[in-house]
Automatic annotation (TrEMBL):
<protein>
    <submittedName>
        <fullName>Adenine phosphoribosyltransferase</fullName>
        <ecNumber>2.4.2.7</ecNumber>
    </submittedName>
</protein>
<dbReference type="Pfam" id="PF00156">
    <property type="entry name" value="Pribosyltran"/>
</dbReference>
<keyword id="KW-0328">Glycosyltransferase</keyword>
<keyword id="KW-0808">Transferase</keyword>
<dbReference type="InterPro" id="IPR000836">
    <property type="entry name" value="PRTase_dom"/>
</dbReference>
<dbReference type="InterPro" id="IPR029057">
    <property type="entry name" value="PRTase-like"/>
</dbReference>
<dbReference type="GO" id="GO:0003999">
    <property type="term" value="F:adenine phosphoribosyltransferase activity"/>
</dbReference>
<feature type="domain" description="Phosphoribosyltransferase">
    <location>
        <begin position="47"/>
        <end position="167"/>
    </location>
</feature>
């Protein structure tokens, strides 16, 4: 059963003792999501990175990989906690990325295709290495699938997938190391 906060359009989330009330936003004509936006939220980002680092303690990995934009602070904080470097898959190509690899994604929040780019220098840094894919939320899995596809192209081995939250069909994400699960909110017409 889904519990929203009483008398408000928010959903309660507790990450490692840090409580937030996520606002519900309509992303499709018949669907709303509880939006997790860690940008600017140092306390929540730190709590999540600390907890995820603990959950990943037994996993052997060399590099953290995330996708622009909202999960960048999480990757940075996990890098500090774990002592591993992190790289960011970008959504816009810049000439300084050189011979970048690319693939398409369609996240639940965006509703139109986005391209993810792996910078040539990052490609060299992860080739043959064990990577942990990290995101703030795994929902439809489109972003995760694009990250996975880039790792295959770059010949990196995926050692773990971690997120603050999974969303939607929990059973689909049993292999994701996650701290909480978010429901989806169907809207009646
Ligand atoms: O499982 P999915 O349906 O792919 O959704 C998950 C992705 O959606 C969000 O990113 P978003 O596309 O909103 O981009 P942003 O972080 O740049 O805002 C989130 O940060 C994940 O990366
Ligand atoms: N609930 C959510 N909050 C923020 N970004 C998301 N991407 C997919 N689901 C999301």
């Amino acid at each position: 059963m889904t519990h929203t906060d009483s008398h408000s359009s928010t959903y309660p989330l507790n990450i490692n003792g840090v409580q937030r009330h996520l606002p519900l936003f309509k992303v499709q004509s018949d669907l709303a999501i509880a939006v997790l936006n860690i940008l600017g939220d140092t306390e929540l980002t730190e709590a999540a990175a600390h907890a995820l680092n603990g959950r990943m303690a037994g996993i052997s990995y060399d590099v953290i990989v995330t996708a622009e934009a909202k999960s960048i602070p999480l990757a940075y904080a996990l890098s500090v906690h774990s002592g591993r470097p992190y790289i960011v898959l970008r959504k816009n190509y810049k000439s300084y990325m050189g011979e970048a690899l690319s693939t398409e994604t369609l996240s639940i929040t965006t509703g139109k295709p986005q391209t993810l780019y792996l910078d040539a220098k990052d490609r060299a840094a992860i080739g043959g290495r064990r990577v942990a894919l990290v995101d703030d939320v795994v929902s439809t899995g489109s972003t995760l699938a694009a990250m996975r596809a880039l790792m295959v192209q770059a010949e990196a081995e995926i050692a773990a997938v971690a997120a603050i939250c999974t969303e939607g069909d929990m059973a689909q994400w049993s292999e994701v190391i996650a701290l909480a699960h978010l429901p989806l909110f169907p809207l009646s017409a």
